[in-house]
């Protein structure tokens, strides 16, 4: 099954969206440009994305490799370099669910946030802490993240999750995704405080960093410590919201100050809603379309470059053979012999321009990503193979696979390891692009054939 081959267009690459403090008119104009950038299937305001590959279905874990939430996270880590957006978004979704399960008496300690208090310079008379002493700057926290385990500060322990793998349906986290692209059968939870290597985000005093952050936005009081999830909010501030944080979100100065002031008054999820909406827009209207576009490519860069070269060679070979026949005195029918090279070459070339290799597509397979190549090697387990082992700053330059992949020869990369594409919707999109390539190749071949057929014979030999 394929989609409409005459109207389908894969999602356009989205370089950027308006900033978090852009006007509503600017945002609507940008989203309108996304929806009008092509025709065919549409997912919300993004054209070219089937409903089966929508952002919500990927986040909910309703897709198969290589389109799972895990694959989306890997794309954000290794390709787009903004995994903190998805990590924060998934944490917020889980946080909202856990907050709603609190008893009413605990909810009353954290009233719903009113946006006007966060934006306006409004001072609420709240009691101050007697020991609110600032002893170090936020930058020292970042330096400690990269320090060794020589001496640990009195950090806070990560909270116990409200769910656990293998439990009943009521306690099962919505943040689990299907197995990863390499066919692992284990489910991995998403946590914003996970780490790997020698340094943990829990080895620092998040409470101290949060206190310094409050001081930095002129909050003269310390928040109520009896509010639910206050310790967890302190960690979120230290990891995602403080300036220079390990996973600092891309927020404007105005929005950063607004959310910090809001969190000083309450731990209600509404205090983070504006940040969540901005991050969701980035994920939904920028990262997600780019992820779909990137996933359509079934070959790595060396393989696609090889396909481009092979297609060009076939086209030039067909033209050369037809020229030789045309300049001679043989019958006109022999001139169409070059159509074989034109058809095969142009189909290969058109598909490669979309990032696809026709040989891989014929078997519905794709190249394994570089960071997936050594997933089965026990010595390479330092790489990010689950959400539970992401490093503090989402960096990957020190992962073992990076050095190993650089040592691989060009031939090894062209004929790299392959894996079956399990997601049916992605296979249908690739089938559509393959049919489009064949149609374009047939038209191109017909034009060239007609030109060579009408040219008079040279009779040079």
TrEMBL record:
<feature type="transmembrane region" description="Helical">
    <location>
        <begin position="433"/>
        <end position="455"/>
    </location>
</feature>
<feature type="region of interest" description="Disordered">
    <location>
        <begin position="151"/>
        <end position="170"/>
    </location>
</feature>
<dbReference type="InterPro" id="IPR016137">
    <property type="entry name" value="RGS"/>
</dbReference>
<feature type="transmembrane region" description="Helical">
    <location>
        <begin position="304"/>
        <end position="327"/>
    </location>
</feature>
<feature type="transmembrane region" description="Helical">
    <location>
        <begin position="339"/>
        <end position="360"/>
    </location>
</feature>
<dbReference type="InterPro" id="IPR044926">
    <property type="entry name" value="RGS_subdomain_2"/>
</dbReference>
<dbReference type="InterPro" id="IPR036305">
    <property type="entry name" value="RGS_sf"/>
</dbReference>
<keyword id="KW-1133">Transmembrane helix</keyword>
<feature type="domain" description="RGS">
    <location>
        <begin position="230"/>
        <end position="293"/>
    </location>
</feature>
<protein>
    <recommendedName>
        <fullName>RGS domain-containing protein</fullName>
    </recommendedName>
</protein>
<keyword id="KW-0812">Transmembrane</keyword>
<dbReference type="Pfam" id="PF00615">
    <property type="entry name" value="RGS"/>
</dbReference>
<keyword id="KW-0472">Membrane</keyword>
């Amino acid at each position: 099954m394929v989609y409409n081959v005459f109207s389908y267009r894969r999602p356009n690459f989205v370089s950027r969206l308006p900033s978090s403090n852009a006007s509503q008119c600017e945002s609507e104009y940008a989203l309108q440009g996304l929806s009008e950038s092509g025709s065919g299937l549409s997912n919300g305001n993004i054209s070219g994305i089937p409903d089966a590959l929508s952002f919500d279905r990927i986040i909910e874990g309703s897709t198969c490799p290589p389109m799972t939430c895990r694959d989306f996270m890997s794309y954000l880590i290794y390709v787009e370099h903004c995994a903190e957006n998805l990590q924060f978004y998934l944490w917020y979704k889980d946080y909202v669910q856990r907050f709603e399960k609190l008893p009413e008496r605990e909810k009353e300690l954290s009233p719903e946030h009113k946006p006007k208090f966060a934006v306006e310079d409004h001072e609420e008379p709240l009691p101050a802490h007697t020991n609110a002493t600032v002893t170090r700057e936020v930058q020292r926290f970042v330096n400690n993240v990269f320090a060794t385990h020589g001496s640990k500060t009195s950090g806070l322990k990560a909270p116990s999750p409200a769910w656990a793998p293998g439990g009943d349906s009521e306690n099962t986290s919505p943040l689990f995704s299907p197995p990863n692209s390499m066919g692992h059968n284990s489910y991995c939870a998403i946590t914003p405080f996970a780490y790997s290597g020698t340094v943990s985000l829990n080895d620092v005093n998040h409470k101290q960093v949060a206190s310094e952050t409050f001081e930095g936005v002129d909050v003269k009081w310390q928040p109520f410590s009896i509010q639910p999830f206050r310790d967890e909010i302190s960690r979120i501030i230290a990891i995602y919201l403080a300036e220079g944080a390990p996973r600092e979100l891309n927020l404007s100065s105005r929005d950063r100050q607004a959310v910090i002031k809001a969190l000083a008054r309450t731990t209600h999820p509404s205090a983070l809603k504006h940040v969540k909406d901005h991050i969701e827009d980035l994920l939904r209207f920028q990262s997600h379309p780019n992820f779909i576009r990137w996933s359509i490519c079934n070959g790595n860069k060396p393989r696609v470059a090889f396909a481009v070269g092979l297609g060009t060679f076939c086209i030039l070979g067909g033209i050369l053979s037809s020229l030789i026949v045309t300049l001679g005195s043989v019958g006109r029918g022999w001139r169409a012999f070059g159509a074989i090279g034109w058809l095969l070459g142009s189909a290969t070339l058109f598909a490669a321009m979309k990032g696809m290799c026709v040989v891989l597509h014929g078997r519905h397979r794709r190249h394994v990503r570089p960071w997936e190549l050594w997933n089965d090697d026990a010595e390479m387990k330092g790489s990010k193979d689950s959400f539970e082992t992401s490093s503090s700053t989402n960096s990957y330059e020190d992962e073992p696979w990076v050095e190993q992949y650089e040592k691989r020869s060009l031939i090894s990369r062209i004929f790299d390891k392959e894996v079956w594409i399990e997601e049916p919707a992605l296979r249908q999109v690739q089938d559509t692009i393959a049919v489009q390539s064949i149609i374009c190749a047939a038209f191109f071949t017909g034009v060239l054939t007609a030109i060579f057929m009408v040219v008079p014979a040279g009779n040079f030999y």
